[in-house]
Design brief:
The chain is α+β, with helices and mostly antiparallel strands and 191 residues long. The chain has a single domain, classed as 2-Layer Sandwich (Beta-Lactamase), CATH 3.30.450. It has six helices and eight strands.
């Protein structure tokens, strides 16, 4: 019973996520006070070079992609988990989960967003960079962009899992920060 309640609470409709993020500062009494308080005091952490591992889990754990996304949340302004089925004929990528200012949201199946053209064919050792606005416009999630000049970085550790993380760090610091995050993500998937 408790597991069912927890599952219902952690699943979000895309419309609800948009509403919460658009009105985060103006909530007075709301069930998501924790989200509001976390967002108000959020500042992306640095120091990924000192992190030895994002998490300790088995690489074949089906919850691994979501656990990695949750572990990345404190270090980036926002991010997306994109997944596709193991079927080679199905080339559709879907945004299944996202985080914003430290809070992670799992999208209901009906609200998952098809990510056409967002995930390029890259190897796990490559990082793809783009302007956040241009990248997120393709999936209609530009509401996740915080500061002007925010960059989007895509990691693809497996053929069916990809991450897009957004960072507003200035270029000299962002390069190291993203490279360290990329290495840690790949370690989780044994690369």
């Amino acid at each position: 019973m408790n597991e069912l309640i927890k599952d219902k609470i952690t699943r979000w409709s895309l419309e609800r996520v948009r509403f919460v993020l658009a009105h985060i500062e103006s909530f007075v009494e709301d069930e998501n006070m924790e989200v509001r308080e976390k967002a108000r005091g959020f500042s992306a952490q640095t120091g990924l070079g000192e992190v030895e591992s994002l998490l300790v889990t088995e690489p074949n754990d089906p919850k691994l992609p979501l656990q990695v996304l949750t572990a990345l949340a404190p270090f980036f302004d926002s991010g997306l988990l994109l997944q596709r089925g193991p079927n080679a004929e199905d080339s559709n990528w879907w945004v299944t989960d996202l985080f914003w200012r430290g809070s992670t949201f799992h999208l209901d199946l009906k609200d998952q967003v098809r990510a056409v053209g967002l995930v390029p064919e890259i190897t796990p050792l490559q990082v793809h960079r783009a302007e956040a606005e241009r990248a997120l416009n393709t999936v209609g999630m530009e509401f996740l962009i915080g500061a002007a000049g925010t960059q989007a970085y895509l990691f693809r550790p497996t053929p069916s899992t990809a991450y897009v993380v957004l960072s507003s760090l200035a270029a000299p610091w962002a390069v190291d920060h993203v490279a360290q995050a990329h290495t840690l993500v790949n370690k989780c998937f044994i690369y």
